[in-house]
């Protein structure tokens, strides 16, 4: 069941056509959805099927169950994913950009292209950025690499040539929220090259994201969006105290205080820049 539906995935673009009628034919990850629905029919069936789903997810979908659980703040989901051997340090492949490519203007027919983002963020980066001290503590205790660094990700774009159309890798579009997420100051954000054929090195560690982190819904809503507005703040005010708590845990674990290799930013520089001293 899990192998019969190649439609949808984290490595190739997907064309999604939506008509006025409701249909299940265009749902991504259809095989996984069917397996989950089957497992939900009774507890015994769930016990049998769940390990196969998580193993398939690890092999084919880049341990997405772990990454999605971390981003949703689900400790139960994280524990279950790790108990089935999902890779705690895998790069996040659960992100997409969605573009409307064709529409009749009346909502009777719309064609979308869903394009995967090739990110280098890990579960520890996300837990730190979303201010979840409990998850950070658990991930560190289970082997999360606190020294692993992230760069600006890439995506595929369709380029038209005389010889035919061809998919090419390119950096995220100029207004993508990850460009702001990966920068410590407005000056650094403004200095980003708009277009580049190569991955832009940043070298941001978990401590970098912890110093910008917050568990607030406003923070999550801003960074869940794919577009960053230039008049938005790079850092959301933290009223929970999570930044200090997570920063302490990462430093005690042995994290480098150079939070960004590209700028040689020190943790103290970030804290002072954010007036979070």
UniProtKB/TrEMBL annotation:
Annotated protein name in UniProt: Uncharacterized protein
Organism: Colletotrichum fructicola (strain Nara gc5) (Anthracnose fungus)
PROSITE patterns (alphabetical): ANK_REP_REGION, ANK_REPEAT
ANK repeats mapped onto the chain: 119-151
Protein keywords: ANK repeat
SMART domains xrefs: ANK (SM00248)
Highest taxon in the source lineage: Eukaryota
């Amino acid at each position: 069941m899990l192998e019969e539906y190649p439609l949808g995935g984290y490595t190739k673009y997907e064309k999604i056509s939506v008509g006025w009628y409701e249909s299940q034919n265009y749902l991504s990850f259809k095989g996984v959805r069917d397996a989950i629905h089957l497992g939900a029919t009774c507890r015994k069936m769930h016990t049998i099927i769940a390990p196969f789903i998580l193993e398939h997810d690890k092999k084919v979908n880049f341990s997405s169950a772990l990454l999605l659980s971390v981003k949703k703040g689900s400790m139960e989901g994280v524990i279950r994913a790790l108990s089935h051997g999902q890779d705690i340090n895998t790069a996040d492949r659960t992100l997409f950009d969605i573009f409307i490519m064709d529409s009749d203007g009346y909502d009777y027919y719309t064609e979308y292209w869903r394009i995967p983002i090739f990110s280098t963020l890990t579960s520890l980066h996300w837990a730190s950025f979303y201010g979840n001290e409990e998850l950070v503590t658990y991930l560190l205790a289970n082997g999360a690499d606190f020294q692993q660094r992230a760069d600006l990700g890439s995506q595929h774009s369709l380029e038209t040539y005389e010889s035919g159309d061809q998919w090419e890798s390119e950096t995220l579009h100029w207004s993508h929220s990850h460009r702001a997420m990966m920068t410590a100051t407005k000056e650094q954000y403004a200095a980003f090259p708009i277009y580049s054929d190569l991955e832009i090195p940043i070298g941001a560690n978990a401590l970098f994201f912890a110093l910008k982190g917050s568990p607030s819904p406003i923070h999550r809503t801003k960074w869940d969006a794919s577009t960053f507005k230039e008049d938005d703040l790079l850092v959301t005010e933290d009223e929970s105290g999570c930044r200090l708590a997570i920063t302490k845990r990462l430093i005690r674990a042995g994290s480098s205080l150079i939070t960004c290799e590209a700028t040689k930013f020190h943790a103290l520089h970030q804290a002072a820049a954010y007036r979070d001293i």
